[in-house]
Amino acid sequence: MIPTPDLSHLTRHDLEQVYDPAEDTFLLLDALEQEAEALRKECPLICLEVGSGSGCVSAFLGKILGQSSSLYLCTDINKHATRCTLATGKKNKIPLDPVTCPLARPLLSRLHHAVDVLLFNPPYVPTDTDEASSAQSSAGIAGSWAGGADGMEITNRLLQDVERLLSPRGRFYLVALKQNDVPGIRSKMLEDFGLTSQVVIERRAGREFLLIIRFTRTAVADSGSKSTS
Known about the structure:
Layout: H1 12-17, H2 23-34, H3 36-42, E1 46-50, H4 56-65, E2 71-76, H5 79-91, E3 96-100, E4 115-120, H6 129-138, H7 153-165, E5 166-177, H8 182-193, E6 196-205, E7 208-216, E8 226-228
Parallel strand pairs: 1-2, 1-4, 2-3, 4-5
Antiparallel strand pairs: 5-7, 6-7, 6-8
Helix pairs in contact: 2-4
């Protein structure tokens, strides 16, 4: 079992400004651990987490891959989050490289078809559009959960860029809420971008039903996950 990254350096003030790892975070960690062998075999060179928050997920990915030449890029609109991500990398001896920016747009040209592992735990809670827009503009902690109409407004922005980011062997792991219309997301990514998908893991967490979806350019051998075309 791969240990959860040490976050003991984060203060109460940090967790008032940055999303505190919760059930969705830990479900994504479980999905990555489930895929650990396959991830190691791929020997990813460039890993990118969009919306890294505390840096917990990227640090965990670094623990999975172990000593490697991987580049761990992390983006967040929240300046405090990028500072926490950097500190989490140092605490766990994983060389995380955070960038303060919206989603991955500023990196698109440099990372065109270059990202081997793409991670996104988006703001997926359904809110009105104004609340989601305000959360993104203020670049504070609300930006980590306010997802707009159907909880998909921010996610949809990144989905438009996924194909341009993924390398030929790239894997994209997305956290989704059942209410986000998961079948619709998967169908759209297949029809619009030719990306196949599998539900790697799913779990009820209180009132929420969460899923981790893996997208790739070609079908990946089923390791207990649920695939549809």
